[in-house]
Specification:
Protein name: F-box only protein 25
Radius of gyration: 25 Å
Strand content: 5-15%
Mean pLDDT: 77
Low-confidence stretches: 6-10, 27-61, 74-78
Keywords: Nucleus, Ubl conjugation pathway
Shape: globular
Subcellular location: Nucleus
Number of strands: 8
Pathway: Protein modification; protein ubiquitination
Organism: Cottoperca gobio (Frogmouth)
Largest sheet: 4 strands, antiparallel
């Protein structure tokens, strides 16, 4: 009989009892709403090749790319939705091998995480870092899962209008990386048919156009609105923002908010939140009246030092169990004081965790 419990080394597998014995439960890619379901097989596989070439554009190549992409996305693949995984960095007597970035991307439940607003920015930032430097290190299955989750991220922004600027930056970095790999570096670094990657690049450009044309509708509120609040409360809310572009965009709403966003108070608090006093002394920016120009100083410091990252919820790593998990989901820890072993993992630290 298979082992059903959870030990400190790895999560127990899911099993079900059948007439022929115990079988492991697996999840396939078609259960996670693979993209390109809208492709018409009759149109793609049609034998009618008349009028395929129009001028210098050959539609036969486009049709072939669609067929390759469809075949690539409809093949079954193992996809897990674990709330935690064991990070194996070497071989032991009990376990052989190690956990890779692609395996972590496949097994952790990122599809459900993007539906949580506390985790959305974290997952989007992680995918942006992967797009910049780690895309070629992913396996073929991990790359499929990456683009499937990316489609859900774009779909959530289009449906809920949540943080489109972050996703625009993600798609821009991914488009630049794919263009560089497919055109300049060469096809040898890409896993799979190059037509699949060219079709993915076209899909990314389509997503970018959709986000650029995104119009957020004006909400009709019958109760108290933000403009009805006293000025000191509006200024207090403005000072709670940790992103400079949020302050600038909020200042474009009304003339009153513009005057509040141009004052030195929110920019001073923003500088103290992201940078230290030692960094202030090295890059002090004064105005004509010998006062500190806090807005200009923020953008000056940002050129030299990284800003502090802030997320509603992050992945955590247990140093005692070597387990990576979402904090509110927990994990089977055997430590006497589990809280003392926890360490929050930033998106960059998540990637560094799998560098061997």
């Amino acid at each position: 009989m298979p082992f059903l419990g959870k030990d400190w080394r790895s999560p127990g597998l899911s099993w079900t009892k059948t007439e022929h014995g115990w079988k492991r439960i697996v999840f396939y890619g078609h259960e996670l709403e693979d993209n390109n379901r809208e492709i018409d097989l009759k149109e793609v596989c049609s034998d009618n090749k008349e009028n395929l070439c129009v001028g210098d554009v050959c539609e036969l190549a486009t049709t072939k790319r669609k067929k390759d992409l469809y075949n690539n996305n409809t093949k079954s693949q193992f996809v897990f939705t674990d709330k935690w995984i064991y990070v194996q960095k070497g071989s032991t007597k009990e376990r052989h091998g190690y956990c890779t970035l692609g395996e972590a991307l496949n097994r952790l439940d990122f599809s459900s995480a993007i539906q949580d607003l506390r985790r959305f920015n974290y997952v989007a930032k992680l995918f942006q870092l992967i797009a910049r430097s780690q895309l070629t290190s992913l396996s073929g299955a991990a790359q499929k899962n990456y683009f499937n989750i990316l489609e859900k991220i774009v779909r959530k922004v289009l449906d809920d209008y949540y943080n489109p600027r972050l996703v625009k930056d993600l798609l821009q970095d991914l488009s630049s990386t794919l263009h560089n790999l497919a055109i300049h570096v060469g096809r040898c670094v890409l896993v799979g048919n190059v037509n699949i990657w060219l079709c993915r690049l076209e899909t990314i450009h389509k997503w970018e156009q959709q986000l650029n044309n995104l119009q957020i509708p004006k909400q009709i509120c019958n109760g108290i609105s933000f403009n009805d609040l006293p000025l000191h409360m509006q200024n207090k809310i403005l000072c709670k923002l940790s992103d400079a572009y949020d302050i600038i965009n909020l200042g474009q709403a009304t003339p009153t908010l513009y005057s509040l966003s141009e004052s030195s108070i929110p920019w001073k608090k923003l500088c103290h939140f992201h940078f230290s006093d030692k960094q202030f002394c090295r890059n002090l920016v004064l105005s004509k009246s010998d006062n500190v120009d806090w807005k200009l100083m923020y953008f000056t410091l940002k050129k030299h030092y990284p800003t502090k990252e802030q997320y509603g919820d992050t992945l955590h790593f247990c140093k005692h169990c070597s387990i990576l998990f979402w904090k509110d989901c927990g994990h089977p820890c055997t430590a006497i004081n589990p809280d003392s072993c926890l360490m929050p993992i930033s998106p960059q630290h998540f990637i560094d965790l799998f560098q061997f």
